[in-house]
Amino acid sequence: MRDEPDTDLALMKFGIGQPVPRSEDPKLLRGEGRYTDDVNLANQAYAVMVRSRHAHAILRGIDLAPARAMPGVLGIYTQADLEAGGFGPLKCPVAFPNRDGSPMKTPPRPALAKDKVRFVGEAVAVVVAETAAQAKDAAEAVMLDVGELPAVTDPAAALAPGAPQLHDAAPGNLVLDYHYGDADAVAAAFARATHVTRLEIVSNRVVVNAMEPRAAIGSYDPAGGRWTLHVGSQGVFGMRGSLAKDVLNVAPDRVHVLTGNVGGSFGMKAPVYPEYPCVLFAARALARPVKWTDERSESFVSDHHGRDHQRIAELALDADGHFLAVRLTGYGNAGAFIYPPLPATINAVKNVVDVYRTPVIEVNSKIAFTNTTPVAAYRGAGRPEGNYYMERLIDTAAHEMGIDRIELRRRNHIPPQAMPYKAPSGMLYDSGEFTSVLDKALAAADWTGFEARKADSRGRGKLRGRGVGSYLEVTAPPGKEMGGIRFEADGSVTMISGTLDYGQGHAAPFAQVLVEKLGIPFEKLRLIQGDSDELKAGGGTGGSRSMLVAGQAFVEASAQVVDRGRQIAAHLLEAAVADIEFDRGRFVIAGTDRGIGIMELARRLHAGAALPPDVPPSLDVAHVSDTPPSSFPNGCHVAEVEIDPETGAIDVVRYVMVNDFGTVINPLLVEGQAHGGVVQGIGQALMERTVFSEQGQPLAGSYMDYALPRAADAPAFTVQSHPVPARTNILGVKGCGEAGCAGALPSVMNAVIDALSERGIRHLDMPATPERVWRALQGR
After folding, report:
1. What residues have CB less than 8 Å from 196, skipping those under 6 apart?
2. Which residues are in the Aldehyde oxidase/xanthine dehydrogenase a/b hammerhead domain (predicted)?
3. Smallest Cα–Cα separation from 233: which of 535, 582, 29?
4. Cβ contacts of residue 219 below 8 Å, gap of 6+?
């Protein structure tokens, strides 16, 4: 008699490839989520940051006396207090060498400004009071004595002679002079080219605007000398390591990081921010927990921004339109402090090649300090930009050479028979059918029927354009990831992973893998990611890698569970281990119907089944996986837009995407991720514009000034899949989290330029706002 549910039915509903709704959604929709601001600890106090109103100034003094005398104030702390308490600065964890081999400039960032403020919103002091309102009132009473300095916000201007200097350790404001490629080979390719296309192109700065503002609660246990931080993050294991090593100067086991639900991040919540050391310091100083929650107006200036690159992009082609070389030269804006400059450096290298045979490439990037909010990762972190540069170059080259833009793409595609393909970026593409994906997208978009739609638009006084955006992304590099499986006494099974869900919906697809591999009922599976005490390793979530690394870790852990289970089952069934087979959740003596289900086996172990010393005492596994190499999600997006020439307003009216994400674990969640990425891409392409005055003051500091896409700005999406399983990981997955942006930026902007081309406009930088489009149409 079988002692487990119908496994075949479970696989049909919950196995790999099934559209299973997100496990957490019912709880979140009932308002039962637990975000950082929902956490309240006994006797907690409240912190508010005192922030600079100047972009660049000498900090001559801070008058705390009036604020200290205000009701409810418990303490006010500056950088001098933190340093006296043994707290270290925030550090950049990744550095690249300059083209001459010298190290990148990485001046550490104090949690609170010490001698100088370098951007509007930089934290200068932290006020702690009995209530948040009291802390806010007192923070407004803190007086700063400053000597204002000239500011610079543009990276090219920051590197010019005589520009205001931000850091003594970075002369000329130069963070990094990055170079990749064989400059001589690229120059030779351009010299023999029949045609060279050159574009000055910008990837505009964006404010991340996660739905949930950042928040943190710090506490300290003097008996054990242990710190606890509740915080929204992208991975508690990495957050714990950075805090312990760089800030607190203690062993990692003396730091406990807890993350509950997270309302969006897109890269922004990954690093340690100045507020986190501040609440931890105050908690120890006051012997009580201290809570800080950001407000949206503060988020605009204190959360890391995204993008902000200026490029000259060049493509060399022969007489037949075959690509000979691509070269990127330009600037990246670091803001006032440096975080890993991946977007303008190695991620540009890896992703500009896209899906095309390009013999040689060169990337030159000068990263500069400016008096602006620091810039760090934002959905894709250089991957969408690399594809955007290439796709805009192709459309421009096709027009200049009189070659059909689709034909030019087909002519340069890397063919399937070339796999594995060694790209000039150093990446080894393992799989992909790029021409098939393009053709499928064109068919789904009714490419041949466009002229009739364009005529209809013209009849209504509108300009209509269509754009193609092919993309190939290189996901995050390999590392280590935990795949823990624990069978609980209540009959549930806990999955433990060092990734972290900040909106992706990890619980369902991770569970689907264990349903497939172990036959565990879907409803029995629970996921832990946000407790650093539970982890042995963890790379967090980023770079479209979660299923790639966690999936492999759980598959390997499942194999260990089966191995342990065979030994235990052999003892309980009185058989040799070699005779025990496992299939669909059941251990069976080969050639018989005698067996035991995995859940029943776990129940008997918890009930105290006697086992000899040479048999594993449980099915539990805490496995650490060496994760697989990067994968290469790819696809083709086709957008159509209508433009009102009287106002410059743009509507995205049709949108088709065909994606190759390899093995799709959960098509419902994958489609949702694609939708979200595309909408963010539409936002950057058409409306999101971060502007600073000459004095470094942000001029788009709220939703009154900064436009985000709404539901009305998104078309109905047509989503199709063309999966070509990856050959380099167990599940064949490729990653999907950032691909929407990578396809949206080029397809939307190519469509905009296509619509404007009948008026003689061949290039326009993002964001293509109504004002910018109208001015271009008016020749202004």
Report:
1. 190, 314, 315, 316, 317
2. 30-150
3. 535
4. 41, 227, 228, 283, 288, 289, 290
Q: Are strands 634-643 and 463-472 parallel, antiparallel or unpaired?
A: antiparallel
pLDDT at 780: 77
Sketch out the chain's domains with CATH numbers: 7-33+477-626 (3.30.365.10), 212-302 (3.30.365.10), 430-475+633-777 (3.30.365.10)
Across 414-420, average pLDDT = 97
**Hunting for tokens 């500011």 — which residue is that?**
151
d(CA 557, CA 622): 7
> How far, in whole angstroms, is CA 364 from its chain's centroid?
24
Amino acid identity for residue 499 in this structure: T
Q: Is 459 left (phi over 0), alpha (psi -120 to 50) or beta?
A: alpha
Distance CA 733, CA 713 (A): 31
Mean pLDDT of 343-358: 96
CA distances from 647 to 310, 708, 709, 750, 762 (A): 27, 19, 18, 20, 19
Nearest residue to 632 via CA among 425, 355, 358: 355
pLDDT at 472 over 60: yes
Predicted confidence band of residue 1 (pLDDT cuts 50, 70, 90) = very low
User: Are the C-beta atoms of 500 and 262 separated by less than 8 Å?
Assistant: yes
What's the mean pLDDT when you consider all of the chain? 96
Closest CA to 663 of 721, 742, 717: 721
Whole-angstrom distance, CA of residue 57 vs CA of residue 63? 16
Asked if residues 220 and 347 have their Cβ atoms less than 8 Å apart, the reply is no
| Least trusted range by pLDDT, from 7-16, 190-199, 295-304, 706-715 | 7-16
Phi, psi of 527 (to 5 degrees): -120, 130
Q: Which residue has the tokens 């409810």?
A: 72
Residue type, 578: A
Residue 413 has pLDDT above 90, yes or no: yes
Q: Tell me the pLDDT band of 525, cut-offs 50, 70 and 90.
A: very high
Residue 650 near residue 773 (C-beta atoms within 8 A): yes
Instruction: Identify the CA nearest to 366 among candidates 94, 96, 90, 694.
Output: 96
Structure tokens at 408: 């030019």
Task: Please give, one letter per residue, the 3-state secondary structure of 139-180.
Answer: HHHCEEEEEECCCCCCHHHHCCCCCCCCCCCCHHHEEEEEEE
Percent of the chain having pLDDT more than 90?
A: 98
The residue type at 79: Q
Reported as a single tens digit per residue, the pLDDT across 292-324 is 999 999 999 999 999 999 999 999 999 999 999
Whether residue 395 contacts residue 753, with contact meaning beta carbons closer than 8 Å, is answered with: yes
Count the helices and strands in the chain (H runs, E runs): 21, 30
Please say whether the beta carbons of 234 and 476 come within 8 A: no
Tell me if 349 sits within 8 A of 630, measured CB to CB: no
Say what the pTM is. 0.96
Q: Three-state DSSP class for 11?
A: helix
Among the listed residues 412, 413, 408, 459, the one whose alpha carbon sits nearest the alpha carbon of residue 432:
413
Cis before 715 (ω within 30): no
